[in-house]
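can u do me a favor
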């Protein structure tokens, strides 16, 4: 078991930024979690493609935040999901690495269907955060 904080990458669509920002703040309040959010970690002049790939490679857990907007939207979120799935292929079977997080009632894409999702719905955010914390704690120990 390591003594460093659990590194958590937040993958999301820009349309979901307000709720993901809130999730980031709640995760950041936990001393054993070090979340990675692009708007907090990317600075002017950085190559954001390279930095995002480096962050995914170095992370312990990826939270793929899903909404009806994100699962139908073309763009960078689809690229991030693809990168996350590529890295997941290198993890030992059974490793907790990708956790789909539904921000609203939606059907996760087939590419993410093998992983149990967590719900972080507006009316149940505290419950969702508790469930994520349990999942993250087991990842930290694994």
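np, heres the sequence
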């Amino acid at each position: 078991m390591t003594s460093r904080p659990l590194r958590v990458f937040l993958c999301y669509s820009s349309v979901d930024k307000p709720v993901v920002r809130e999730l980031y703040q709640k995760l950041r309040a936990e001393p054993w979690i070090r979340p990675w959010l692009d708007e907090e970690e990317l600075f002017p002049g950085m190559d954001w493609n390279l930095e995002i790939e480096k962050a995914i490679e170095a992370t312990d857990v990826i939270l793929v935040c899903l909404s009806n907007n994100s699962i139908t939207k073309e763009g960078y979120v689809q690229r991030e999901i693809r990168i996350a799935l590529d890295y997941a292929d290198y993890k030992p079977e059974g490793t907790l690495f990708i956790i789909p997080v539904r921000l609203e009632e939606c059907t996760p894409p087939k590419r993410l269907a093998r992983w149990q999702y967590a719900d972080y719905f507006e009316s149940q955010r505290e419950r969702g955060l508790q469930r994520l914390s349990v999942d993250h704690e087991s990842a930290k120990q694994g």
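The domain at 6-141 is CATH 3.40.50.10140 (Rossmann fold). hope that helps!!
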